[in-house]
Amino acid sequence: MKNYFAKKKKEKKKREVSVLREYFELISEVMIFVFFIMTFLVQTFVIPTGSMEDTLLIGDHLLVDKVSYAARSNPIDRFFLPKVEIRRGTIVTFKSPPEMEKEYVKRVIGLGGETIQIINKQVLIDGRPLNEPYTFFNDSEIQKTLRDNFPPYRIPEGHYFCMGDNRDNSYDSRHWGAVPDSFIVGRPWRIYWSFESTTEDYMTPGVLHKMKDLAKTVLTFFTKTRWERTVKKIK
Fold first, then answer.
1. 51, 173, 194, 197: which is the annotated catalytic residue?
2. Domain residue limits at 190
3. Are residues 121 and 22 located together in one domain of the fold?
4. What is the pLDDT of residues 169-227, one digit of tens each?
5. What are residue 124's phi and psi, to 5 degrees?
6. pLDDT tens string 26-37
7. Where would I find the H helices in the chain?
8. 66, 68, 106, 194: which one is catalytic?
9. How do beta strands 159-163 and 232-233 pair?
10. What is the CATH number of the domain that holds 209?
11. Does 173 participate in catalysis according to the annotation?
């Protein structure tokens, strides 16, 4: 009888160890899968300023597709995953030319080989006015000369002239020139969460501020979440 209970106890312990091992393996596999996706396929990005209003708002949290615009060195990759052509009007995420440690989200306005000019806020491509239904103007006082008028500029091949939709409040190619193709990170795909915020919420440094901001987010999660923007496709 004693041997029977000892055997049962041993079997129970083995089952518990087996269950724990299965959970550990499952969690490990999930973490590896998520790591792979976040490293090679998708990344997250939060909009900290109003430079893309009204298309993207401060506090929009984006999923960025890192595959569509990535260069393919392997011919097999080029066959099965052809690179998507970046067109005028496309919204892209890219490494900031003046600050490579930062990433920006802007809209492609001019393509390599074209000449872009701005006269009284009207964009001209090769001398022809460009129709831009997505633009937003709020008459701020930031860099009025570059903002409203920009001299003719021939965009180098393999580069893109990128601008924010909020033309009166955007730090973009009007200030630091065209973006090389190699700087493009990906294509903003969808808004997975949108939270009513201010630029100060994201740009103010310090651990104390971050802790206060986290607490505020938790307390106002339901009232300040823009539910109508959740899972919205970005165009």
1. 51
2. 47-233
3. no
4. 999 999 999 999 999 999 999 999 999 999 998 888 888 888 888 888 889 999 999 99
5. -120, 130
6. 565 545 544 444
7. 2-36, 75-80, 144-148, 173-176, 199-203, 207-219, 221-224
8. 106
9. unpaired
10. 2.10.109.10
11. no
